[in-house]
Amino acid sequence: MTSNRQLQRTLGLGLVVVFTIINVIGSGVYKKVAPMAAELHSSGWVLIAWVLGGIISLFGALSYAEVAGLMADTGGDYVYYKKIYNRFFAFQFGWSTFMVIQTASISSLAYVFAQSLHNVVPIPPVLTSWSDISIGGLFHPFADFNIKLVAILLIVILTWINSRGLKTGAWMGTLILVLVLTGIAVITIFGLGSSHASISQSFSLHTTNDQPVTFTAMFTAMLAAFWAYQGWASVGYIGGETKNANRNIPVGITIGILLTIGVYLLANWAYLSLLPVSTLEQINSSGSGIAAVEAVKIFWGRSGELFIAVLILITTLGCNHATIITSGRVYYAMAKEGLFFKKAGELNDKGVPAYSLWYQCIWGCLLVCSGTFDQLTDMIIFAVFIFYGATALGVFILRKRMPDVHRPYKVWGYPVVPAIVILFSAALFFNTIYSRPREAGIGLVLMFTGVPMWYWFNKKYKQTG
Questions:
Q1: Domain holding 313: CATH number?
Q2: Could you tell me the pLDDT band of residue 154, with boundaries at 50, 70 and 90?
């Protein structure tokens, strides 16, 4: 290992688009329609929530694209926040990324991968006598430990693969993405074309509880949708390894998000045409069902169940693979400035920040044992929207501070689009505290551990620097 090596710019626009989509399309496209139906009690309102989630995500991506186009570099938002705000805020983002945002994403994706593998090939129980052990009554680290053990193994294997070089990871991601999009297209075409499908049912605004849809219910449902859209900002983390990054990062993110919105709407249209809302509510209450599996079983039976389980395996593998690749670059950028563990700032002989990836791996494996999939995803979205709002606010700050600087991309709809992102981020923040206090509380606690760590890293840096 040596600290003198430099990251190489090897990714073009096509691979930026690939990384954007594969960072986004994960387990949410298969699972999240059920909890959304349980909140909204109407298939039509569920589709509206997907559309609104897509629009807000696109607005966030457009705002992010202007900032990324102006100052694209390795570390993404960490680098941007240093220039927009200060090193303290940038560190809080980086530490939150390590403690919650990206590592919890990696953990939850690995957890769903293991669940899907269990559906295909039953995994023998492990340490069942320890399953009732809890930490403070909140966490049950040994519950379903056979699933968690496989999830941990996946994180370790993918970390090792990604420590071998970015190009290798990029082409592996491209292959996985082709398989995923093909599989979702098959579900959509056969689902909507099935004699069991009811197109009118999918657009019905009638609620099964005969109650109007509330503001809180819509926001809570969108929390689930945002998990499915989460991940596009990760592409900014590899700005230092992208050719013509100031152009390719914003253009690639915008193209990737637009394509993802289309894929999600088509897939969920198929699910809602095949499954009544009452069935989706039952799937959600079961805690272990997957909406996509039940939808495909309607027209393909047991073969469909096996098909969708394998597709979820491939999808979560691809998304987790991409998340692991991109996230480690944030801690690398922090470590280069003395604001993370020193070894994370070193590159291996493949030009990869391998230590950064392994630190991420260790904490991600611990998070696998901390909670269920939905607890992890709600915690992530709560945390990430704080920083989405900060990025959108950065558009206004940079326009005022640097009015004459050339911008390769300017956000469409300025100032309305970034203003909507800011307002929505604030609303989602407070609504999550109200509707999901446990997840919000855990997320805040993990984020606030960044305050003492800031002082510790600074003190250590002054002593050694």
A1: 1.20.1740.10
A2: very high
